[in-house]
Amino acid sequence: MRSAGHAINEVNPFEKPLPALLPGGRSESPYVQRLRLMWAEMRDRVLAAFPPAPAVPNDIEALLKDIEARYVTDAYHSLSMEGYRVTATLIEKVRDGIWNPDGNEKDRATRDAMAARGYFETHTLVKENLVRVVKSENPGAVFRQALPRWYQALFSPSVQAGILKASDLAGYRNDQIFIRGALHVALSKEAVRDCMPILFELLETETEPQVRAVLGHFLFVYIHPYMDGNGRLARFAMNLMLATAGYVWTVIPVERSNDYMSALEQASSYSNIEPFASFIAELAQAQAKEPLPRPR
Question: Which distant-in-sequence residues (6+ apart) come within 8 Å of 70 by Cβ?
Answer without folding.
Answer: 249, 251, 291, 292
